[in-house]
User: Fold this.
Amino acid sequence: MNTVAMAVDGEPAMKIYDFPIGPYPTRVRIALAEKNLQSRVEFVMVDLRKGEHKDPEFIAGKNYSGTVPVLELADGTCIAECTAITEYLDALVGEPVLTGSTAFERGMIHMMSKRAELELLDAISVYFHHGTPGLGPLVEQYQNREWGLRQRDKALRGMHYFDDVLRKRAYVAGDAFSMADITVIAGLIFADIVDLAVPAECTALLAWYERMKMRPSVKSQPAFVRR
Ligand code: GTS
Assistant:
């Protein structure tokens, strides 16, 4: 692991263990950009292609699940899981609110973000790790192609579901941009990585994605810049 950027203006440093082009780390990067918090974070590169996220030291000290991103607070506490990290960052500073202000908004955003994980992002991740070479033979210790292909089909159904949602409202969880939009964006980034095209008939999802890619917090991400 090596530290690739640091800009901390007198505030206690937070670290993000990161893989800059990865769909999941991009969720946290978008949240940081939306909240204008990048300058308070030191990014630490964890090279997934070298299996650095499976190092016993990383698993014992940073994230039991052996994934990135991980947020490390100044006192050494580590918070893993994109949803948990986004909730933490959202509570640090005010606008824009990404996880909801009212009970209704919080419930809707959490549900839709979880649904975007279950039906799209996590499904494509399983397809990547099981139905394709994934991170390569050094990292992928067990693969089940049948399971991977089922998850790819699940993700395609998920795309139709979110297309239907976005025919009825401007954003995934309501009338404002939220964590749920970020999670679907990550799903479509991962879909692109595994060459899983959004079906052409999903016009609402495709149009929403074009709008999302115009947001400064989204278009500046390494996941898009590299293309
Ligand atoms: N549920 C976790 C979260 O929401 O943070 C999933 C995190 C995750 O799967 N991260 C990927 C990872 O570490 C990073 S990336 O695929 O988006 O680059 N994958 C490595 C692995 O071996 O699963």
The first strand starts at residue 2 and ends at 6.
